[in-house]
């Protein structure tokens, strides 16, 4: 995730919901698009880069993301679209928002 602090931003690694700290600071995010290159291997299924507004590093997981995580721990990912839920919730659960 990246955290905006004034005119610059910090990029943080989050693993399993835990902030591993800033690995890059003073990123000039207002000067243009922010791009990241991520090299993954093994069973990695998804990588997301999200912006966290303000200085909320100790509050990484929102209630929404905790609920999504809990649901996805209890059902197979392939079963998301067969749930009796509105399409927007299914999209949110499958990260297609």
From TrEMBL:
NHR domain span: 1-52
Signal peptide segment: none
SMART domains: SOCS, SOCS_box
InterPro entries: B30.2/SPRY_sf, NHR_dom, SOCS_box, SOCS_box-like_dom_sf
Coiled coil: none
Annotated SOCS box domain residues: 58-97
Name of the protein in its database record: Neuralized-like protein 2
Species this chain originates from: Limulus polyphemus (Atlantic horseshoe crab)
Taxonomic placement: Eukaryota, Metazoa, Ecdysozoa, Arthropoda, Chelicerata
């Amino acid at each position: 995730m990246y955290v905006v602090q004034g005119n610059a931003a910090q990029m943080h690694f989050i693993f399993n919901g835990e902030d591993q700290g800033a690995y890059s600071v003073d990123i000039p995010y207002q000067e243009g698009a922010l791009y990241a290159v991520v090299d993954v291997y093994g069973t990695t299924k998804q990588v997301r880069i999200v912006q966290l507004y303000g200085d909320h590093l100790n509050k990484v997981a929102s209630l929404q993301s905790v609920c999504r995580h809990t649901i996805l721990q209890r059902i197979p990912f392939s079963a998301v679209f067969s749930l009796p839920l509105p399409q927007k919730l299914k999209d949110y659960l499958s990260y297609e928002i």
